[in-house]
Amino acid sequence: METIDLPDPGPGEVQIRQHAVGLNYMDCYFRSGYYPAPTPAGVGTEAAGVVEQVGSGVTEFEAGDRVVYASGAPGSYADLRNMPADRLIAIPDGIAEEDAAALLMKGMTAEYLLTRCYPLKAGEFALFYAASGGVGLIAGQWGRHIGARMIGVAAGEEKCRLAKQSGYAFVIDRTREDVLARVKEITGGAGVPVVYDSIGKATFETSIKSLAPRGVFVSFGTTTGAPPPVEAALLQKSGSLYFTRPTLATYCSARPDMLASATKLFDLVRAGAIKPSIGQRYALSDAPSAHRDLESGKTIGASLLIP
């Protein structure tokens, strides 16, 4: 860790005393260089805290406001930070700062995946990998709220139990079950209309084969490496499939879209339809250990770094 003197916030900026930093797999991508970032640069894209100062031209926030963010330049691994005000979201009353930091990025990811990338409908099947992870647990609850029949994939008895409690109608234990065979069994051989795949290389073939004709393959992560290049002929021969590689940055780049996504999430949280699941807390100085745990699959639910 390094200590620096932080200047006052500039025009359009807000200075935040950060109380909780969200850990996301994207942080590992930036740290490793898989996602390019300008250097020198910090790590981390999500945090919650309290406004200490506002720069000139900022009218939406003032000192004492509770705020959270999940976008902008990397650098959330800090106790004090200057951030552009247009990337901040006010934390609604009744939601704790730690919960906001654990929910926002993962919850907005679930929102755009299930309601905009492929608008999931009541009664539809959907296959979701890493069902016991931070995004997966929220997606299970969101899918249940929609009325979808969520099929989750997790590893081990404890993670499968947690996924089942979080809205998945069916949970496949990939350590002892054949994922494709179970998907076919659950769907009566038809396959699913959509696969939400955050794993990448290791699950590509299974995802393709799990889809029903004209199904949608949503690849939104690559924890085992990038999937192979997708040939048009493969999509044709596999049932006129669709393949997309979306990002939260695109779906929430405009402030109105970001605010609408966060509002949907926090409304469901306050209604009790989605509950935060913080599985691990680490001191900010222990960020290397947190990354190792995340990459090795040791974590359950959301993880926080506490400055």
Automatic annotation (TrEMBL):
One Pfam entry name: ADH_zinc_N
Domain of life: Bacteria
Keywords (A to Z) from UniProt: NADP, Oxidoreductase
CC terms in the record's Gene Ontology section: cytosol
Domain Enoyl reductase (ER) intervals: 1-305
Record flagged with keyword NADP: yes
Listed GO MF terms: mRNA 3'-UTR AU-rich region binding; NADPH binding; quinone reductase (NADPH) activity; zinc ion binding
PANTHER family: QUINONE OXIDOREDUCTASE PIG3-RELATED, QUINONE OXIDOREDUCTASE-RELATED
Protein name as annotated: Quinone oxidoreductase
Source organism of the structure: Rhodoplanes roseus
The organism's taxonomic lineage, starting at the top: Bacteria, Pseudomonadati, Pseudomonadota, Alphaproteobacteria, Hyphomicrobiales
